[in-house]
Structures are given as structure tokens and as C-alpha cells.
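Provenance and format

Records in this collection were gathered into a single text stream. Each protein contributes a sequence line and a C-alpha cell line. The two records reproduced below are adjacent in the stream.
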Amino acid sequence: VNQNKLDLFCKLGYGKQDICKVLDNLGPEALEDDVLKELIRLGSRPQALENQAQPSPLKLVARGSCSTTPGLKRLGEDESDSSDSLRPIVIDGSNVAMSHGNKEVFSCWGIQLAVDWFRERGHTYIKVFVPLWRKEPPRQDSPIADQHILEELEKQSILVYTPSRKVKGKRVVCYDDRYIVKVAYEKDGVIVSNDHYRDLQNENPEWKWFIEQRLLMYSFVSNRFMPPDDPLGRHGPTLDNFLSKKPVLLEKKWQLCPYGKKCTYGNKCKFYHPERLRQAQLSVADELRAKTKVPLTLQKEEERCNCSP
């Protein structure tokens, strides 16, 4: 009987030593369910499960191979999670290129610099809008530099040409600014441009708010794309929060007060004042009230003392 039970549990993957130990403890008449419970209680595991539980060593994979290790897949998942927290980027290609070319040359390299800057931050959705006629050979009145960059960005599905056509020898161009604002609004993203789109703001009140809150201006400093650290001004969000869907709010008590020593809020101010660490943080108005109340209270106390027997 014991041999049959031994063979049965061996087939289930349990070790002979553990099975024999349990059978000796329970006796030859023990039920199979009791033997199984005792094996589980001892912490014995089938050998097949133990082999699966052991981490498989990382294998070297040749470049270009499709096979990936589980660890690498997890890294990819984490990266996608982090990119999900970043806002989509919509770049006004004409504005960026002309700005990099000092408003004289359509510099495609400026567009590449802007795209690379957002790529390095981890943004996965980046779109650049450029009029279709910029694909044509350059003319003297509209010079283009590094035009091949447009082709490369188009192959990467980053560059989008806004449509245009010729009617009776005249070029009919669609308004690319409308594409830029519309896509950024629908994607709840950020517009990268130094243009204020005032005509589009007047068209649609929702667009007006969106342009005011989501327009990221920039500068080129020695072929370096540089957006401001405070896109909405001194009292607005930081650049990291501006480009994130879930901004990280710092505790206000650790944020320096923008008014500094000129602040009149006193202890009601929610910001940090290093100069007020050893003094009561009263507002200027409260300090004046306190000074005027002191002599009045002293006079009243003196009168009470004089009146008392």
C-alpha cells in the first residue's frame, strides 16, 4: 500500500524523502488526502513548481533579435507608465524653424532640436505641423536649410504636413495654426510656439482658455532649445508640472513666498518665510492694531486699580 502511495505522490512531483517521512509519521493506513495535507504542511513543493520558481538566468540576445527576457519587458512597461503621465506635445514647425533661422531661413534643424528635447524627457506623443509646400524645392524668397530632416521626421510619423494645392497657378494653403490648436486641444496636450494665436482665441472661448494655459514658449541659445522654467509666470507651475498630466504639488510651507520681506499676510501667509523663524508672523495690519490696543488696555487697567477700594 505504501509503495502505491509512494508512486502516486512521486508522479505528482513530490520528493521521495518527504513522502517517506510523512508515511512513517501517519502510518500505513493513512488516507491520501491526509498524506497530501501533511506534505503541504511541511512546506514540500512539487519539483516542477520548484524549477519554475527558480529565476532563469538572463540570456544574451543578439542585436535585432525579437526575443526578450521578462525583465526587459517589465522595464518597457514601466517606461510606458511614465510616458502616460506626460502630456502630448504639438509643435508649430514653421514657428520653431523660422525662430531658429533668425526669421530669415526655415531651419529644419531647429525642429529636430525641439523634438529631441521632448524625446529625452520621455514624451511619446510628439507631432510637428508644417505646411505641405515646404516639401517643395526651396526658392529665393523662402530659403530652407537641412530640408532632409523633414523627410526623416515624416518617416518616424512625427511630422505632419498640412494640405495645400495649386488652383490656376495660385497656391491654396490651409491654415496650419488651426490644425495645431485643434489637435493639441483634443489631445489635452501642450502647444510649442511663440505665436499667441489671437485670431483663434477670438473664434472659440474654449480655445482661448486652452491657448492661455497650454502655450509653451521657448528660446534658442547657441543651438540649444530652451523653454522657460516658469511657463505661466513666477506664480505659475514649474516646467515639469506644466508638462505632466499629474503635477507634483510641493508643500506650500516649503515654497518661498514670492513677495519676500514685502509680504503683508503675516501668519496667514501659506508660504515659507525664512526671515520670520524667530518672530511672530503677524500681518502689518495686525501689528498696527496690536500697538494701538496696548495703551488702551493699560489705561483701563489703571482706572480699575484706582476705582477698587
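Adjacent record:
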Amino acid sequence: LLGQILDHWFESEPLKATLATDAVIGAMASPHTPGSGYVLLHHVMGELEGQRGAWGYVAGGMGALSQAIAHAATARGAHIFAEKAVCHVLLGRDGRAQGVALQDGTEVRSKLVLSNASPQITFLELVPQEQLPKDFVQRIQQVDTRSPVTKINVAVDRLPSFLAAPNARDGQPLPHHQCSIHLNCEGTHLLHQAFTEATHGHPSSRPMIELCIPSALDPGLAPQGCHVVSLFTQYTPSILAGGQSWDEQARNAYADTVFDCIEDYAPGFKASVIGRDILTPPDLERIFGLPGGNIFHGGMSLDQLYFARPAPSYSGYQSPIPGLYLCGSGAHPGGGVMGAAGRNAAQVAIKDFRHL
């Protein structure tokens, strides 16, 4: 239990609650849920520029990271087909993966296929079910993909000024503007309360909010004087109580709740908003292919990690289809911007490739 770990090490309730957010990020879980302590560990493992557990912004926005990977690949002879949806994996008579078919009918032949899509899309949509063991298919279907996350991207015409640390007269970013700002985190009981509401199908009335202002460090992201604010919020259920869907009214009602909360900490925030983009769990699934809107391609609970990710006996990146590998967040060790699953899968694929 995360609560027990934090109680052991810390006394300050706001500090405990702020740290607790990293234990429930992307998880339909509360700080009191067994196993939540691992998710905190997952978020502080690794290092950045020699600092253990550190995080950083990507200059130019997160898309710049994808571009850097793409440039590294093309420099070594890779061909990248953007905006080309894969229809299915091509299989030979021997059942081996032989490439992929695109939705426009193009066939791309290869000796190996690595899928960065979720296990659900890879095995339930891109591969003929009769080619897979029944127990494997059942396991993939049963993966817990519930997600509490609604992401809101905001454009503002001035820097938020917080009551706890008002802006300087020149309006320039202060150190706290360059960090992750956690709101509604005065106590872990607030996180548990927000979680409980979502389990009953109701968006949290006082959501957990992680607020980042990447333009405070990377001015090129917004016009001079303006900023982009990234809001990572939870808890919002995929399906609302009574089976209601996330229509425009429900989306805006929740976003208004989030903005009202921010307004309490930073008066004038709502008046500074130029535009907002609201992405609920169904939106995240539809736009990015995240099952259930889950940013990790499946819950990071102890029963879905290590040797059980994505399924028992298939944690080594190979799949029941010879030549087809899983290299995304649904593979070991899970989600997060760290590249471990991709690197590990590549090592296995290279080793196998030498024997073809």
C-alpha cells in the first residue's frame, strides 16, 4: 500500500499527497489500493542526465521525441510511412509473420514485425483469432484497461498567478512555473475521495490535477506573452453513471469543474483562457488507440506486470505468432516515456533475426 510507505517516510500530509499522485497516475486506483506503491516506483526509476528519478520537458514538445527517434531510424536506412494505417499482419503458410497489409491495399513484406500498438489492437484486431491460442486471446481480452485520465490542453494569454506564489511584476516565469504543479492534493483522503466518485460513474467533483506549463521553459511553443498549459486530470470514468456517453455537455461540465478548481488557486486563470482541448478516456482511445484510454496500454497492477505482461509465458516480447513481437507499453516493463520495452524487444528481435 502506498499510504503505508508514505506514512513511514514522511509527516507532511500535502507532501505525501503530492507524491501519491505519481502512484495513481493513469491508474483507476487510490493511494489505498494494494499495489499502488509500485506505480510510484515505476515513475521514479531510471535517470535523466545523471539525476536519478528526474523528469524533464522535451524541447519542441513531445512530438519532437518521436521525430528524434524517426531521424535516428532514417539515418540508418529505415523507411517511415506516416498516416498509413495497418490493416492486418501478413502470415505465411507456416504461420510466421511476413509483413503487414495497409488499409490502402499496399503490402509491406518483412521477415519480422514489431508492433508498438496495444496488445488488444495487435492480437485482437490485426491477427486472425484462429491463429492464436484460445487462452492467450482470453487473457488479452481480460486485461484491465480502465483509465481515469482526462487530458486538457489549454492556451492562455498570460502566465497563471498563484495565490501561494504570485507572479513578478514583469510577468516572467518563476521557478515553480517550470515544475509540475499539483492541485487538490492537500491530503491523500482527497485523492481517495476523487477515486471513489469515479468508481460510481461520476467524474470527480474535486479532481486531482497535475498542471504543467511547458512554454515557461520552451517559449517557442506559444506566441510571446502567451502560454500553453497541460492539465493531466483524474478521476473520470470511461462510461458515466447510467450508461451515459461523454457528449459535449459532459465534457465541458467536467472541464469547467477543473477550471473552477484552478481558479481557486490562481484567480484570473479562467479569464486568461483562449482555447481548450478536452480529451476524455473515450477520446484518448479513439484518437491514439489507447485501450480504454489507458496511457499504459493496460493497468500497471501487480497482476499485469513482469512475467504476466501482457500475458503469462509471453513477457519476453515474442508472441504466439513466430516473427511478431510486441514492443509498446503493453509489454514489459510497461508504460512511461522511457523506451525500455522497445529497446528490449529490439534486442530479442535482432537475436532471432540472426537465425533466419
